[in-house]
Amino acid sequence: MKEFDRKIILEDGSEYLGYGFGSNCSRVLEIVFNTSMVGYQEIISDPSYTDQMVVMTYPLIGNYGITDDDFESKNLSIGALVVRDYNDMPSNFRCTKALGELLEENGIPGITGVDTRKLNRSIRDIGSRRALITDISTSLEEGLRIIAETPIPTDAVSRVSCKKRWYSRTANPQFNVVALDCGIKLNIIRSLNRLGCNVTIVPYNTTAEEIAFMKPDGVFLSNGPGDPQDVGCAIELVRNLRGKYPIFGICLGHQIISLAYGAKTYKLKFGHRGGNHPVLNLKTGKIEITSQNHSYAVDPESVKGTSLEVTHINLLDKTVEGVSCNADKVFSVQYHPESAPGPQDSGYLFNRFIKIMKEAKDNA
């Protein structure tokens, strides 16, 4: 049997051994799990996984390789990938390269052969922790020292946001949307384009004056990595824009909107990541199966003292999944209605954004 050549050291002193693929670099990251059965390419290219080591609960990863059309971001920023059984010989007529090749090209370490069932149960029971992916020769003592001495980053959004504005046009546009890029997924932009929106994507620190100069019909706040309280400029932006333009937020954008209205956020024990979270729409009574990816949630008690109302709740842990302020034409959801691949139950939210923008234009 081939000897293990890589391992994971967690800050609680536990170790998990395996075989390396992708890059051979060592990194200290937050370890989290994802319950999706497909979509590993979309996961590794989702900027929301910046600085995170993602453990896949589904055991077989790499089977269909990598395809050129399925990226969620042009630049990969995931920290590391942990799988039970990596397939280096994919079978897919659309495949252009193997998963391991892509990870190696982008300096992202992977590890296979790990007891992911045990590791995921540990994350579920104890919570997300810091972990080091490293060479098998690294001692436990040395690994724990490296973890303790590595600072926790707070600049994730600034690293994944675009540096200058760019455009995504569509045929016969009806609306102009400015999208604040905190780590935006490309399928969000594609979803807006399909509904007749020209989209201008701008950096996360764009000012209210700059957005007003663009004369948008609506403003979109994207998903992204890290603690929402680290993005103070985006929170202040919402305070300056609310009531002036229709605003729609997803994931981190949802948390930013909530903070801007005076609500509070907190870190979840192990977060929500995967395409199987049931969410109750309090307006319709319908249950939506949703795709999610976040570590933080909005405190429901803190919403009560604001002008926001809770519109959706998670049926697994009762966390806030959506808020709105009809007077200001603002709404947001914690989950991803555009998720690809993923459930399509929540696609109506983009239509709601279109409706609000149309009404605002008609009443202007």
Automatic annotation (TrEMBL):
Official protein name in the record: Carbamoyl phosphate synthase small chain
GO BP terms in the entry: 'de novo' pyrimidine nucleobase biosynthetic process; 'de novo' UMP biosynthetic process; glutamine metabolic process; L-arginine biosynthetic process
Annotated region (CPSase), positions in chain: 1-175
Domain of life per record: Bacteria
Keyword Magnesium part of the UniProt annotation: no
Catalysed reaction, written as an equation: hydrogencarbonate + L-glutamine + 2 ATP + H2O = carbamoyl phosphate + L-glutamate + 2 ADP + phosphate + 2 H(+); L-glutamine + H2O = L-glutamate + NH4(+)
Active site as annotated: C251, H336, E338
UniProt similarity note: Belongs to the CarA family.
Pfam families in UniProt: CPSase_sm_chain, GATase
